Every structure is written in structure tokens, then in C-alpha cells.
Amino acid sequence: MTGVPKLHDDEVEIDAAVVERLLAEQFPRWARLPVRVVERSGTDNVTFRAGDDLSVRLPRTSRNQGQVEMDLTWMPRLAPYVSLPIPEPLELGQPSEVYPFTWGVYHWLPGAPFVPESVDRTQAAHDLAGFVRTLREVDTTGAPVPDDDPFSRGTPLAPRDEMFREALDELREHFDTARVLAAWEESLAADTWDGTPRWIHGDLMSGNLLVADGKLSAVIDFATARAADPAGDVLPAWWIFEGESRRAYRDALEVDHTTWLRARGWALSLVIIAIPYYMTRFPDTLPNGQASVADILTDFPAH
After folding, report:
1. Structural domains of the chain, with CATH
2. SS3 state at 18
3. I need a surface site. Which of 31, 150, 237, 276 has the fewest CB within 10 A?
4. 159/176 Cα distance (integer angstroms)
5. How far apart are CA 203 and CA 208, in angstroms?
6. What does the alpha-carbon distance between residue 247 and residue 18 come to, in Å, rounded to a whole number?
7. Can you give the pTM of this predicted structure?
8. Where do the DSSP E strands lie in the chain?
9. d(Cα 10, Cα 65) in Å, to the nearest integer?
């Protein structure tokens, strides 16, 4: 059986046969369920559907371990307070001969990944902002907080500066680097967050938003969830909204100017830093990245 295509050099082999064996060995009540890979799995985990009611998530690398454990702790605490369904973990799987990391079994959430054509984007902006507002209001006592990793969401931009400049230099033939750098430096100079940390999801991109019957139906993948700078959940303004829906999202969250600048810096840096890493693996990485940067820079007039 063909394995799942790898995104990282240190990624382990994962396929449906591995999942079938893990279920048979550790959760035999699910041993006979048909297993198939979910086409749009993320960059950190591979997701399979088992039967009609379950999903199985396996970290791609050792760096991605720990999410299931966090989900088991925090999803039941967050779920009663947020305005959209979120993952419901059921079991924690253990490492075995066929797979070296902990892994998880979840209740299957119906819906398809967000695509602009599937929803009224202005309504989606209000619905997602409502989710973010309810998440921010949840008590953060004991919540995970950002660490020193420059990829940790909801943190100051400065630790990403060197990586950003190195990546941009690699891409100098593909971008107006002076304009990109000027926008980055404007965000870098914005005041850092000095308020009370709030719960953020941190990765509200299209693949982590589910849609059913033309409306947002669930939010998934809380790997980057932290008590941190709320700018971390402003990024969908560029990731999935534009024009009227972008304004609606900003207004619904009452985003001030400095928070907007920090969020824009995060959106810009995530794209620029990712392109050199993924462009050799996915041919559309560069053109998609160029389109994303152009869209982000509509908020930064040319000088």
C-alpha cells in the first residue's frame, strides 16, 4: 500500500495499513472499520477517517507529538464556551512497532474544508469572529503559553526577524523585496502586546475551518492554541477574507491599529518563511505565496 506523501525530511512512514494495525492492537472494538486517508491532511499530522464516525490523527514527526494529550486536556474545557464545534478526542494511542509516537482517535466532525465559493464570506467573517470572541473569554488558568520557539503563535515578531530576512533574500528574484521588507519593518516596530493573554487558536486557515450547508460548521486542529497575544487570531483577515469580508472581520473583532500591524506581520512572515521550505515539494507553493503576499500588501500602500 502506498504511503502518505511526505512533507518533511524526518517524517515517518504512515499509511492506512499502519492505522488499521494500530486500531486492531490497541482499540480492537474499532478493528474492522474501513480506514481511508483524508485528502487535505495538515503539515503536522496525517488524518484518516475510520468508519463513519471516527477520525485518527498521527503526527508526521517527533516535533508534532503532544497535540492529542493537549486536546484530551483542553477540548472538553473549551467546548462548552465556544460558538462552533471543536474536536472531541476519544482515545490516546501509544507508540508501537509500526508507529513511534502517540496518536489519537477523535469523533468525526462533518463538513468540508473552507473554500471561498462554499460560503457567504461576509457572513463567515461574522461567524468566525464570534468564535474568536467566545474563545478569548474562556478562563486561561493553566493554559499552555508560547515558548521560545519563533514559530510559536501569539508571540512578538522580533524572534522571527532573522528567519524572515534570510527567506526573503532567497526569494529576491520573485518579490519586490524592498516593499515586502518595508511592510515587515512597519509591523516589527508596532507595540508588542502588554495586555492579559487570551486564548487563541493560532492557525485559523482554510484547512482548519469546516463548512456544511453553506456555513461554518466547526473549527479543528488546535495544535497552536495558547494563551497569548490576540493578534494571533486576526490572521484570517488575510488568509481567507478580502475586501468587505476582511473589513467585517476586523470590525467584528474591534481590532486596533497596532494589533492589526502585528497580525499583518505574522501573516506576511508565515508566507515568506514557508515558501523556500515547501517550494521544492509543491510546485504551486511559489505562485500561491506570491498571490498571498500581494494580497497582504494591499494593506501597505506602495511608496
Report:
1. 16-108 (3.30.200.20), 113-299 (3.90.1200.10)
2. helix
3. 31
4. 23
5. 7
6. 45
7. 0.92
8. 35-37, 45-50, 54-59, 89-93, 103-107, 112-113, 198-200, 209-212, 215-219, 226-228
9. 13
